Amino acid sequence: MNDAATLPPLVEGGQINDHSQGRERVISIRGLRNQFGANVLHDRLDFDVFRGEIVGLVGGSGSGKSVLLRTIVGLNPWREGRIEVFGEDMGHLTADERSHVQTRWGVLFQDGALFSSLSVIENIELPLREHARVPEAALDDIAALKISLVGLPPGACAKKPSELSGGMKKRAGLARALALDAELLFLDEPTAGLDPISASNFDSLLRDLQRTLGLTVVMVTHDLDSLNAICDRVAVLLDKRIVAGTMEELLAYDHPWTKEYFHGPRARAAGIR
Amino acid sequence: MTDIASDAGETWLRPVDQAGRVVLEAGGTWTVFAVAELRHIEDPAKGRRNVAAIDIAGIHKLDTAGALEIVRLQKLFPDADVEGGKPEHLALIELVTKGIAAGVVKPQRMGWLAHWLYELGETVMEFFEQTARLLAFFGEVLVVLAGAIRRPRRFRMSSVVAQMHEVWILAMPIVGVLTFLIGVVVAYQGVEQLKAFGAETFTVEAVSISVLRELGVLLTAIIVAGRSGSAFTAQIGTMQVNLELDAMRTMALNPIEWLVVPRIIALTLSMPLLVFFGNMMGLLGGALACMIYLDFTLVQFFDRLRDTVYIWHFWTGMIKAPVFAFVIAAVGCYEGLQVKGSADSVGRQTTKSVVEAIFFVVVLDALFSIIFLVAGV
């Protein structure tokens, strides 16, 4: 019923109105198609992310938010289309070029995906040691800084991931994603499972880091508070495509799913009109 | 491999005299990729006193690691002011300054003697605890088995059949090939050695007794321990990591009944069948070697086998099969249940399960030899 053709016309990069303002496209996706068996998840999907913005990615369960994230970071081979990150065509990279791109982004997986055989601090030190060749004397300082930035108690440094609670794993995962001060962060449901205080601390931390480091952030989230508070733009997966815009544009957007999502009781509770 | 750090760009830190006062000029790329170089060039600056200011106007790229280095400089020269920072750089330095207040807590190190005593005590305690846990586990298995006999509905038949497919049917090719080859090898050695006494026809007895009594069942047990025992540990262990076992317990489903007992029953039923098959393949291998080296026909080999080899040689092998199977399955499941928390632990317990299973099998085999010796079979 909801065929892609029924979506109102969009401008370049799946946007309702153009917000590029001449900024560099950190991510640029054109005509992406993802298909598992007969199940088409994305079709003719266009998506742009500009430097220095925080983009929230939302969509119904099973609409392929995580798959889109996994596709961008190269964990999921795609059928058709072109994906560019930092202007590099992700489909045609040599191994060296790929590892260079990979050190410029950080990924936070849903449950942290910490290396279970390493302690928290060793998890964070691993990329520092391997990619930045940070001397031993400085390793602990930098790792401890990241741990305290994400709001973990210092006592958590020596713990193994299996000894941490879900929320702490998430923060440790974020600390690892931030280890190399990546320019681009991918976050998969960063505030899910956090208590409201930690969640809003997380939001302000992300805002601080984004401002001071000029980060670009793509986050899959269902936290309407985060969407409202820190996302510059919101990208919605609708009918296998991305519809991206500011909160105001999406509130005015004429589609049954967005209407229900942004005008539901939870949205009202989050202060979205 | 690529040198990812190579694009770090130039980084500098140098003392400059400015109208009678010393200013440290920092500039270039101050990022995590430059930390190694920064630590290197900081040293000459350390000896200096009377540093009046740190001028960071020349820094064009700064990240948290770089900001941390500036904070370190501030600590080295408490009297110096930071000058010339861009607003976003100052904000970053402030963020980092707030962040480092907490510090790190590393695990404490013990002296070697204390450590040795600690390890010794832990090993001893672990041994007693392990024994207690193992006994509790066997008890629980027996209780569930007894309950299942009283109420046959509690036998998870479909689970048993699925496991038997896994541990019996799918194991047949590898067991068959290996025992066949061992039959050929033993027969060949027999021919070679017995030839010296002109007794090469006794190769038939040599190969059939060694295969039927020991080699068939031991080889099969080792393959099964490596193949199925390890799989039991990994399956149950992974479920443990995913909290699936906790989920079962909260749903009034007993993991012993659902996961452990079907596996033990399946393996105990499968193993004699596998051993029988392995024995036959071993004999066939022996027969083939005799056909090649002694010009026997197949009928001659089996005629001699029937005439000279006592039937109890066959039964002694077969009696051991279900006992070994029970031990392998029980150890495999037990180690799976001992998994704690992480993927790391699954690997460790799997290794332990295979080593322990083979160890128990060989020890039991020795016990059986004594029993059969006393019984005269």
Question: Could you say which structural class the secondary elements and strand pairing of chain A correspond to?
Answer: alpha/beta
By secondary-structure content and strand pairing, the structural class of chain B works out as alpha/beta
Strand order of the largest sheet of chain B: 1-2-3-4
Helical segment tally of chain A?
10
Question: Based on CA inertia axes, which overall geometry of chain B fits?
Answer: elongated
The helix tally of chain B amounts to 12
As a percent range, the share of helical residues of chain B equals over 70%
Number of strands of chain A: 10
Major sheet of chain A: 6 strands, mixed
* Rg on CA atoms of chain A, Å: 19 Å
Structural overview:
Chain A has 273 residues and is an alpha/beta fold. Helix content of chain A is 36%, strand content 23%. Chain A has a domain of 65 residues. In chain A, the strands form 2 sheets. In chain A, strands 6-7-8-3-9-10 form a 6-stranded mixed beta sheet, sandwiched between helices. A 4-stranded antiparallel beta sheet of chain A has the order 2-1-4-5, with helices on one face. In chain A, helix 4 crosses helix 5. The relative contact order of chain A is 0.18. The N terminus of chain A is likely disordered. By secondary structure, chain B is an alpha/beta fold. Chain B is 71% helix and 9% strand. In chain B, helix 2 crosses helix 3 and helix 7 runs parallel beside helix 11. Chains A and B meet through helix 2, helix 3, helix 4 and helix 6 of A and helix 1, helix 2, helix 3 and helix 12 of B. Chain B: It is found in: Cell inner membrane. Chain B: One of its GO terms (molecular function) is phospholipid transporter activity. Chain B: Belongs to the MlaE permease family. Chain B: This is ABC transporter permease.
Secondary-structure topology with pairs:
The complex is a heterodimer of chains A (273) and B (377).
Chain A lengths: L24 E12 L2 E12 L3 E5 L6 H8 L7 E6 L2 E2 L5 H9 L1 E4 L11 H12 L4 H14 L16 H12 L6 E5 L7 H18 L2 E5 L3 H7 L2 E6 L2 E5 L1 H5 L4 H8 L1 H5 L4
Parallel strand pairs in A: 3-8, 3-9, 6-7, 7-8
Antiparallel strand pairs in A: 1-2, 1-4, 4-5, 9-10
Helix pairs in contact in A: 3-4, 3-5, 4-5, 6-7
Chain B lengths: L10 E8 L2 E10 L4 H12 L4 E12 L1 H13 L4 E3 L3 H13 L12 H39 L6 H11 L4 H24 L7 H39 L2 H7 L4 H39 L4 H11 L2 H27 L5 H33 L2
